[in-house]
Amino acid sequence: MLLIVSVIPVCAQEKQKVTLQLKWTHAFQFAGYYAAKEKGFYDDAGLDVTIKEAQPESDVIGEVLSGRAQFGVGTDSLLLARQSNQPVVVLAVIFQHSPLVILALQENNRVKTIHDLVGKKVMFERQSEELLAYLQSEKISPKDIRFIPHSFDVRDLIDGRVDAISAYVTNETYYLEKENIPYQVFDPRAAGIDFYGDNLFTSEYMIKNKPETVEAFRRASLKGWYYAMTHKEELVDIIYNKYSSKHPKDFYLHEAKEMDEMLKPELIEIGYMNSGRWQHIANVYKSLGMLDQDFTFEGFLYEQKKKDGLQLFNVLIIAGLLVIAAGLLVYIYLLFRKMKKTQNAEEKIKNDLTEAQEQYLTLVENATAAIYMLKGSRIITANRAITEFTGYSKEELLQMDEFEFIHPDFREIAKERTRARERGENVPDRYEMKIRKKNGEVRWIDHSGRTIQYNGEMYVIGTAIDITESKATRERLHISEERHRLLADNISDVIWTMDLNGKFTYISPSVKKARGYTPEEVMAQPLEKVLMPESQMIVTEGLRQLRECIAYNLPFPGFRADLEQPCKDGSTIWSDVNVTAMYNKKNEFVGLIGVTRDISQRKQFESRIAEMKKFDNVTGLPKREFFTARLEDEIEAAKLVDASGALLIAGMDNFKRINSSFGFSAGDIVLKNAAERMKQAAENAVSRIAGDEFAILLPRISGKDDLFEKAEKIRNLFEEPFYVEGYDLSITVSIGAVIFPEHGSNEIVLMKNAEEALSKAKEKGRNTTVIYDQEDAS
User: Fold this and answer.
1) How far is CA 734 from CA 148, 551, 758, in A?
2) The overall pTM is greater than 0.70
């Protein structure tokens, strides 16, 4: 009765409420925690657990240390948090390999290599320090990248609002593959940064004040993880029905399948963490200056109660005793069997010999290869297959000389080899030759023969296999290879093969015509001698991606790029390089095959077209869009240093009369000369923005007086007439000027106000300068 009374308060005790803060929205990457909750593992541990998904602005570490959550899921950046005096403690590692990568799209070609991220917009989630370490290991400063907070929406990448995103290779890739969008994966593991992922952690407060709760939560969570990884489809249904239907079920199934590689549950106990591996992670951070050299792990890694170790020791002792007992039983059993076998040994050996003899004769008689024995040049015994080879019956073969069915082309060679064997000389055991069947058909055989001594006499045992079809196939293959080599050796494109280390294994002779080097010279060159530096970076990245594809058993998507290559005479050429992977019949990678085509003329044409797009074809001055980009930069620079600059728009007075009176060719001459005069006042800062209007940028001025003085100098340059086709033409200019950032903080406002000032100058009778006045404008 007393026992019953004492149990009642325990049964009535309420479960302890705790919160787990996730690092991302609900997904299969947290399946173990859902399993622990929904299958009652937390309940059994006396816990009432709330699982809280993250929002873009969530700070997981802050939530745990503030007490709003008692447990959290974090990355290896917990090391950096610990260094910053944030008392976090890692309880278990879920992902043995971190799935955190950088994703970019292939189709826009804005990000081909990791170095192309410089200056680009990249969306990063919190706790992405391992990616920052990856960038630094590639000599990329995070300051050179335009980071923006993560929206948790991969559509921002697909729709081009950002150039790259941090992502889990198990998650976001699903939507890209579903929409058949080619993508690039930049994986820290390619740079040797192989960190843990999704670490379960808590605070020192919980460790010191509620150690039983911590241990109970850890055990129940890991039990949930074991259940989740062995019941994936059930957990997908639970996630979809109870936690989030934001993604389709296929997404969660895809994620679950991909996670096997990251957790490796069949090899490594879920939750296991190695202090040496943590030390390696810390060393990487230290080498990049992200972690202090004197950082200590004291208190960072959770230590289970020692009784667990004692229990394990006891289990091992019991298991060892059971193994010893089982071994003794097996030994006694085997000894008994051996004694019994000895009693019947003689009778069994006799039966076995008879059976083996019968099996041997059956095997020889039914072998697909011809097997026969010669004494001298006579066949004394043969199996059934030789009759099929030759078309003769066994009786006919035993009555004839061996050399009768050998083709005349090989008969003398066969006789000489037989005589050499009889003399005891060394003769090749195996060779190919032709035979002639009884019906006159000629066949090829692969023949093997060996001399033996039996009862003092010499015999030859021979075997033969019909290789007529395979030899014909080899001949066709040889002809095909010769044709392909002839083609490769005589086309203008360069065809080549390469191994995974970037070493050429074949180069067609056409490389000499393209670059002046012989194939042998190129094959002896390292990769850096074959490509110019920028092109070398592109190829090195391509080889890195290929190695990743092979390591993860993924298909290689191919590689194509325009690359610059050095020539023997010191010049360079541009080449279109198209590369695919070669696989054998077992689908094993054996090398790369590439075709390189000289596109230097195309590049020169494209360069001319690009220049035409940038510059006015009459004056050679930059066009408006390039000028306005420079203007925007100068506006921002002026703001940073609290300085002033100016924009002038100069309009040529009555210019249309020149075109109407002297023709457009004369007008073009005037425009060219006008451009040259303006460049005297502002070199590299003049643009033709309309038919008879020019924009002039003055990056720095000291005030309105300075601006007016400089504008007047430009206007006075037009006092001297233009000499055109024998005529002196007097042309004046009117100038409208604005000051930035005083009169506008962007190029659109400044251009509008400068045009307004120019209109006032024209209204005042032309050939004058007007500085924009905000009061007049209002």
Assistant:
1) 45, 69, 7
2) no
